[in-house]
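Appendix C: a fully annotated inverse folding record. The material below is reproduced so that readers can follow the format used throughout the book. The structure is listed first as tokens, followed by the designed sequence.
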């Protein structure tokens, strides 16, 4: 049976049924890829993929981005759990990064090459909370007043994980986060346009988020206000969706036109999500320049 796509009650996204991600034919994957470009977010309920099976599925969409220096590890845990089953200290670097992820962002925009897509699955979930939010930045751009579109056309912003983490009280020094995220370089700060043209669909979208700052040509205050205003405008109904996880759920989203954020939950409860990131094409996802 062909996969069935049920659109969300939003401007984007679909729940996919009648598909087994462990047994994908070439034809079924082509159907999923077309839907991925159309909807921006695909939700696969209760697939229960192993870590290796998730990496195999993600690799259908492109080369896996190396997020860790551990050889052969294609997918990484996003978790507050220690190896002994307890929860990590709230001042641990990973805990502080999880705090930062509760702000709207796109993955790897702070890297020289931004991510194409991300895959996330639920393995251990808290009793309540921990929903993941998504925003359609294509619809956000389309809904902007023409005056605002003219104002931001041609503008760019720098993207830095150090900047965004410092804003949430994680006072990371240069080089500190390199031990957490493979390939990060605190001296390489990509500059990215506020308006992005999707390399496959040709549609324009806003490309902002918590990592963005310092728009050249504007004062610090003007830049900050514009970026905050754009996020606040974008993250409104019907352009948002918050996913309530069940164990085994798997989601894939397009970082080139979506923002996402982690939801709050009781950090005394364990939560384990497995994350795989698909690398962007350097031709379309490289920073305009590196400072």
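Designed amino acids, in order:
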């Amino acid at each position: 049976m062909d996969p069935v796509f049920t659109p969300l009650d939003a401007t984007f996204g679909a729940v996919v049924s009648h598909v087994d991600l462990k047994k994908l034919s070439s034809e079924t994957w082509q159907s999923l890829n077309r839907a991925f470009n159309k909807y921006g977010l695909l939700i696969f309920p209760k697939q229960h993929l192993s870590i290796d099976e998730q990496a195999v599925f993600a690799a259908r969409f492109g080369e896996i981005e190396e997020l860790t220096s551990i050889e052969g590890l294609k997918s990484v845990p996003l978790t507050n759990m220690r190896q002994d089953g307890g929860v990590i200290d709230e001042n641990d670097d990973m805990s502080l990064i999880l705090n930062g992820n509760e702000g709207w962002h796109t993955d790897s925009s702070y890297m020289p090459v931004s991510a194409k897509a991300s895959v996330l699955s639920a393995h251990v979930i808290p009793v309540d909370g921990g929903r993941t939010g998504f925003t359609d930045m294509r619809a956000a751009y389309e809904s902007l007043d023409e005056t605002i579109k003219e104002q931001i056309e041609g503008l760019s912003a720098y993207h830095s994980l150090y900047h965004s983490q410092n804003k949430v009280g994680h006072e990371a020094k240069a080089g500190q986060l390199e031990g957490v995220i493979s390939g990060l370089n605190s001296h390489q700060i990509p500059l990215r346009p506020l308006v992005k043209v999707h390399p496959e669909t040709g549609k324009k979208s806003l490309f902002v988020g918590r990592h963005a700052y310092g728009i050249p040509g504007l004062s610090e205050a003007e830049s900050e206000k514009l970026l905050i205003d754009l996020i606040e405008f974008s993250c409104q109904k019907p352009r948002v969706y918050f996913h309530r996880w069940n164990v085994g759920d798997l989601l894939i989203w397009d970082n080139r036109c979506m923002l996402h954020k982690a939801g709050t939950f009781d950090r005394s409860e364990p939560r384990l999500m497995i994350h795989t990131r698909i690398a962007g094409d350097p031709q379309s996802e490289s920073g305009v320049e590196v400072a």
